[in-house]
Amino acid sequence: MSRAALVALIAPDFAEPDRLRIEALRARHDPNHKIIPAHVTLIFPAPGFATPEAFAHVERTAKAAAPFDIGFSGGAVETETERGETYVMMMAGEGGAALARLRETLVSGPLAKSQDPSRPYRPHLTLGRFADAGSAATLARRLVDETRSIAARATALTVAAYDGVSLGDRRRVAFEGRAR
């Protein structure tokens, strides 16, 4: 079995001014901004699951999905105690249920044991990662005060193998399903 971690994410389509603002924030606060554009993670790094069977499952699931709208708002803070890092996120309101349903379908079959069931899935867009929780809280308050809801459209999913440094075998799969 491959030791590379499988990841699946959606890089939503934003209006250009919103995309530029989000990427500027990420360039200042998110060390991963050079690896991947702003995104919603559907499958967090799953070591050992970057197998042909898992890639095929994700691709089939993505092709069957229909494009949908997402609305991001607020500034939420979450601390990951294992690493001692605090994240600032915009939460997905509109489209959040669609993201959760898609994730539920993705983490079935060959990926059924890929995610930690004790961590609830909260669809979000990460804007920053901080060693200092106070700095994270400051950015989150600023986002709440200054940012209206940001609209986006989910039209494709990217699945890739993550080695801890970069994304390899990156595959973009367009959503081809029909809206219900």
**What is the string of helix and strand elements?**
EEHEHEEHEHEEE
Q: Could you give the distance between the termini?
A: 37 Å
The percent of residues in helical segments reads 25-40%
Oligomer: single chain
Number of helices: 4
Strand count = 9
CATH superfamily: Cyclic phosphodiesterase
CATH class: Alpha Beta
Short structural description:
With 180 residues, the protein is α+β, with helices and mostly antiparallel strands. It is 29% helix and 36% strand.
Describe what this molecule looks like in 3D:
By secondary structure, the protein is of the alpha+beta class. The chain has one domain (5-163): Alpha-Beta Complex (Cyclic Phosphodiesterase, Chain: A). Helices cover 29% and strands 36% of the residues. The protein contains four helices and nine strands. It has helices spanning 16-29, 52-64, 96-106, 133-146; strands at 5-10, 13-14, 40-47, 68-80, 85-92, 124-130, 150-154, 156-162, 167-174. The strands form two sheets. Strands 2-7-4-5-6 form a five-stranded antiparallel beta sheet. It has a four-stranded antiparallel beta sheet with strand order 3-1-8-9, with helices on one face. The longest helix is centred in the first third of the chain and has 14 residues, at 16-29. It is globular and about 45 Å long. The chain starts with a strand and ends in a 6-residue tail after the last strand. The model has no long low-confidence stretch (mean pLDDT 93).
